[in-house]
Design goal:
The protein has about 60 residues and is mainly α. It is built from 2 helices and 2 strands. Strands 1-2 form a two-stranded antiparallel ribbon.
Length: about 60
């Protein structure tokens, strides 16, 4: 994504298969995880973007 400071990259989603397989291997309740994973993914992907500092236009 182009920004005033250059190009910024952001993830577009999680690899849910990898998350579930890792959780299963660690003994996590995967039924519970499948219920909450969409909320976790949304929180990660849609986290608040840091405000870019305004450029100094020399009028300060």
């Amino acid at each position: 994504m182009p920004t005033p400071g250059g190009i910024e990259t952001r993830p577009i989603g999680l690899d849910n298969t990898a998350v579930l397989l890792t959780a299963q291997a660690r003994g996590v309740d995967t039924a519970l995880l499948t219920e909450i994973l969409p909320r976790i993914e949304a929180a990660i992907i849609n986290q608040a973007q840091p405000a870019h500092e305004e450029e100094d236009d020399g009028n300060t």
